[in-house]
Structures are given as C-alpha cells and as structure tokens.
Amino acid sequence: MNSVVIYGSRHGNTQEVAEAIARELRHHGPAQLFSVDEAPLVLPKKTDLVVVGGPTEAHRMTEPIAKFFDQLGRGQLEGISAAGFDTRLRWPRWLSGSAGAGITARLRGAGATVIDPGASFVVAGKYPVLEAGELERATTWAASLAAKVDSRVPDAVR
Hints:
alpha/beta; Rossmann fold; seven-stranded mixed β-sheet; 23% strand; 35% helix
C-alpha cells in the first residue's frame, strides 16, 4: 500500500499527528509525508491512500489547506482512498467547528473515495498542545485506515 500524508500545522501539533499517522502507515508500505506547502499537486500514480489534516481555526480549515485544495483539480484524486483529520479544542463540534469536515468534503470534491468520516485530535491550552494519548489514537486510526485500504486493493495489484 502506497500512502501520502499531507498536513498543515501552526503550532506543531498537527505535524506531530501527521508524523504518527505516516509512521504507522509505513508498516503497511511506503508512506510519504509532506507539509501542505511542499505537497505535490499530482500524486504518484500508484498512490492507494491520501490522508490530509490541519488545525481547526475559526471553525474551518486554515488558508494553506484550502489553497492546496483550490489548486488540486476536480477528479485529481479519482480512484484513491482518502481520509481527513484535524486538531481542535475539546469543545462540542458545533462550537469549535472542524477542519476535518471541510477537508473530507474537499477530498470528495477532488474525486477521492473517502473511507472514513475523519478524526479529530484534541489540543488544549492558550498555546495549544496535544492532550495525552492523542498520538496513540492517531496511530490506531492510521492502522484502521490501512486495514480499510488493504481490503480494497486487489491481490493482483499488491
């Protein structure tokens, strides 16, 4: 399974989550990790999974993540499994918003097959830091994504 993980990060929390996700995905095959500023607009042809994440700010994804999707053409992710995630405060979703929800919608708009409703990883504090256990949750979530993709990839392609 070939994976690409793309993240935007303001305080380093989303980067830590993305690194944990990529580390787990490497147990299932090659996994490339890119900050959104360095992410390719055309993924390698044999990409099976793309995971995109960013911090939730003002109830939505940050401008760099939105710009990445604006530059990615419709249908660009056709045939690729995908999932989105965010980092956000531990507030009810209706109060904090969710970058992950917007990311997931944009993944669908780019033609990806969304295989998971997305995940939120919780930060706390004025200068936000990840809550205890969130990196472990990210690892578990990544393993579940790999299992979903693995069940979709035909044996002849592996």
